[in-house]
Amino acid sequence: MSVVDVSNGLEQRATARVVLIAAAAALGGFLFGFDTAVINGAVDAIRGSFGLGAGRIGFAVSCALLGSAIGAWYAGPLADRFGRVRTMQVAAVLLALSALGSGLVSGMWDLILWRVVGGIGVGVASVIAPTYIAEVSPAQVRGRLGSLQQLAIVLGIFTALLSDAWLASSAGGASQPLWFGLSAWRWMFLIAVIPALIYGSLVLGVPESPRHLVAKGRLSEAKDVLRQVLDLRDEGALDHKLADIEQSLRSEYRPTLRDLRGPRAGLLPVVWIGILLSVFQQFVGINVIFYYSSTLWHSVGFSEADSFTITVATSVVNVLVTLVAIALVDRIGRKPLLTIGSAGMAVTLGLMAWCFSQASGTGAALSLPAPWGMVALIAANAYVVFFGLSWGPMVWVLLGEMFPNRIRAIALAVAASAQWLANFAITSSFPSLAEIGLSFAYGLYALFALISLVFVIVAVRETKGMELEDMKE
To answer: By three-state DSSP, how is residue 84 classified?
Structure first.
């Protein structure tokens, strides 16, 4: 791969090395997707094992997201103090411990504890990976490399759902015993130890962010990293790039919440935009598909095996469309893709709401008459297409690059924390909303998709091709 960036008169290339470095960092996204989606196949088994109602199973599924909000909140200060690489290693350890603990629980409350621990690791990874990738990438390919985070997330979701389906099939059901007398749903959690260890091993070999090194006064090390990742051979060009980074970081290095203050409702406009991007990404309801889809399709008449198959197929669609987004992000831009995605999601979610308004029965007896079951299935996958093309990868790309250098870490932490809290609100409320009516739930998500369209058109600015040093407040 050799893409040249001549911004500011400096010739930079996206070398194979920087692609590999970004891919290693993006594996945190794989664990992000795996850890959050793996519970999909275990929901019904956990509900039965521990006798949980709608409200309690909603909290058991979503409690990890509270941990993610905590992890995202503290990731920025940790990364600024100890470095991006060391913080990624901490995330890997937390995720490995959570996988072991969640698979060996004896009740609901220790499951919640270990899910929260894993959530903290996910939250840390969700902030650090896009920050790190943005800081080591040439501007002209930063969108594509930043999209590796979302590609890793959707691959993690796919792998989690595929492993859930395989384990449940091998045992004859998610609640049935598998190896060593442990139920299949327990192995769904335990298997996550493997990618956590791989991630932790790989990030041991990536260099520290040059921007962090400059901020710490380690200029010679920063110059070496820039030489590696940007393929800059001219010493004058390297010195010029270092000077640009120093200029952008000349204000206080360790930003605090005080640095985010601004004239609009107490925060800088760019911070509000980051927060709202995060909130809308979740309020369109995407994680309902990936956390509850097996239960959802089972509830409207599909067998457990078919429900697992549908869920895996949907995750494959998500992976494929994310590849399309990666190909388009630096050509079309972030804002046009978000606009297309919002419009498409509003239509497809509205269609899903209409389909479920035709349902008969309630609870486990709910069913969709022909042809509405198939229409709902097609609409759900079309919705995933529009999300995967736009709000899935674009939000992470924007959050990694849209903030000025001096506040990037703390602003991204705030925005990511807002995202996890929004995710928690949507995920924990869905079982109760579903009891009111699935048509109501999907109609609500369609409304948020429509509002997000207006927000993108009015407030979001394009960042395609801009250097990080040129981002404004």
So the answer is: helix
pLDDT in tens, 337-371: 999 999 999 999 999 888 888 776 655 556 666 77
Q: What CATH number did the domain enclosing 294 receive?
A: 1.20.1250.20
Q: Which two tokens stand for residue 236?
A: 């004058």
Distance in angstroms (rounded) separating the CA atoms of residues 392 and 398: 11
- Determine contact, residues 34/159, Cβ cutoff 8 Å: yes
Residue 220 included in any domain: no
Q: Is residue 236 situated within a structural domain?
A: no
Q: Which of 206, 188, 175, 221 has the alpha carbon at shortest distance from 45?
A: 175
- Taking the C-alpha atoms of residue 238 and residue 219, their distance in angstroms, rounded to an integer, is 11
Specify whether the CB–CB gap between 225 and 231 falls below 8 A. Answer: no
Which residue range forms the structural domain that includes residue 396? 16-206+255-470
- The closest alpha carbon to 76, from 173, 230, 209, 174, belongs to 209
Number of domains the chain is built from? 1
- Tokens representing 431? 């079982």
Pick the closest to residue 451 from 319, 328, 338, 311 (CA basis). Answer: 338
What pTM value is reported for the model?
0.67
pLDDT digits (tens, 9 = 90+) for 429-457: 877 787 777 788 889 999 999 999 999 99
Assigned domain for 11 exists: no
Asked whether residue 436 is assigned to any structural domain, the reply reads: yes
